[in-house]
Amino acid sequence: MAKQVDRVEAVFRAEAARNGERPEKRPASDPAKKKTAREKPATLKSVDKLLIDETGDEAYNYTGDETSERDYRPIRQSHEYRSGCLGGIMYFVFILCVSVVLACVAWMAASDMLALNKTPYTTSVTLPMSIFSSETVDTFDESGVKTGTKRVTHADMGYVANVLKEAGLIEYKWLFEMFCRISHADTKIKPGEYELQSSFDYRALVQNMRPGSGAAVTITVTFPEGYSLRQIFQRLEEKGVSGYDDLMNAAAGYKFNYDFLEDMDSTEATRLEGFLFPDTYEFYVGMQASSAINKFLENFHYRMTAEMIQRMEERGQDIHEVITIASMIEKEAANDNERATIASVIYNRLRANMPLGIDATTLYLHPEHEGAPTASMLEEDTPYNTRLYTGLPPTPICSPGLASIRAALYPETTNFYYYALDTDTGLHKFFTNANEFNNFVASQNY
Questions:
Q1: For residue 343, is pLDDT > 70?
Q2: Which of 13, 22, 129, 261 has the fewest CB atoms lying closer than 10 Å?
Q3: Rounded to the nearest 5°, which phi and psi values hold at 67?
Q4: pTM of the predicted model over 0.85
Q5: Which percentage of the chain shows pLDDT scores above 90?
């Protein structure tokens, strides 16, 4: 305690000196003043209040006058200050770490979305029809008035994302699906086979997964004269162009805008029989069924020249009649030289109201059968049985070529009512009466 007092006195003296005061000296050897020395000056009493609390114990939390010893002691940071500083540093480090992680994630996502730093390569991706679904939605004009309906096709984007992920074209399926939801890509992507490049970003991938894009894989298919609608659709399915059932549905229900189809009220796929022009075509693999069919119809439209249409009108015929006769000529003729002669037999029988007796019409209902019709087939009660019914069958029985169409428009003028195949030559012989015809048939080994 004495040391503390001495130290405080020293401080007090120094303060007095600065203020120009002369501090009193306390004689150390004056015993007469020892008693009065206990009565301390007011200044020392003030200092004591800094050092001793009311109970007489030493005080460590100095809160006294304006001037105290604490004012002259080195300032030490409190525990609360040190804790606050450390917390601030830790918070800053945490924010920095989170920012770095988010920056890394953003960079990885951007790299995948923009196809950055990817090894160049090309791969094939197939989107089957089975992952697409269609619905009918209302259409509206600018003022919000309903104008009609339309069919909208949606792709299963989960399947598409999986295929692209497996092909190495994308890294994050969730990100691609989110992009597709925002851009409505499910209505833009179409079935088919596509050759896609690793350099394609998300937008380019979507743009190239539809027919007509540079990535769509094409295939060339040839259809000979005499193929029926069913045979054509089966070949399209075999080549991966479109599914057989989809083609049949489109042939039955899709509205194709061609004049030669306007007067047909049928809702059967056979309404297009005979109008799928035989030729060599280039299709997109997996293309829409109606688009594939339209290629045939468009070709037929341009093949029917103005001269042919004028000839048809001069003869008082419609397009359906001409193509039906041409389809029978196509099935019956052995070569081009016979076509106009066979056409004359057909017209002669029609004018005479005789059954045409062409077995190819009966076989039309039995596409899987090979060879001549059986006895039971020839007895079937169907308008395609031209041995029982007069006139033309309900529809063409195949797709005729130009030679048969021209023969139907420009038949020979003959008196023939019969013809039969000569098995020795592979050509047909023509007859004016039934006796000659029957005698010749009896001589052949059919």
A1: yes
A2: 22
A3: -110, 125
A4: no
A5: 60
275 within 8 A of 314, measured Cβ to Cβ: no
Q: Please state, in angstroms and as integers, the Cα–Cα distance from residue 66 to each residue in 47, 58, 62, 69, 72, following that order.
A: 11, 19, 11, 10, 12
Query: Is 156:130 a contact under the CB 8 Å cutoff?
Result: no
- Beta-carbon contacts of 34 under 8 Å, excluding residues fewer than 6 positions away, are none
Q: How far apart are CA 265 and CA 278, in angstroms?
A: 24
Domain parsing of the chain, residue ranges: 2-72, 122-216, 220-303, 318-446
User: How far is residue 83's CA from residue 29's CA, in Å, rounded to a whole number?
Assistant: 53
The pLDDT-based confidence of 11 (bands split at 50, 70, 90) is low
Cα 396 → chain centroid: 37
Residues 302, 277: Cα–Cα separation, whole Å: 10
Between residues 149 and 373, which one has the greater pLDDT? 373
CA–CA distance, 174 with 202 (Å, rounded to integer): 12
Amino acid at 315: R
Count of residues for the chain?
Answer: 446
CB 26 within 8 A of CB 40: no
Tens-place pLDDT, residues 238-291: 998 999 999 999 999 998 999 999 877 778 999 999 999 999 999 998 888 999
**Residue indicated by tokens 């006058």:** 65
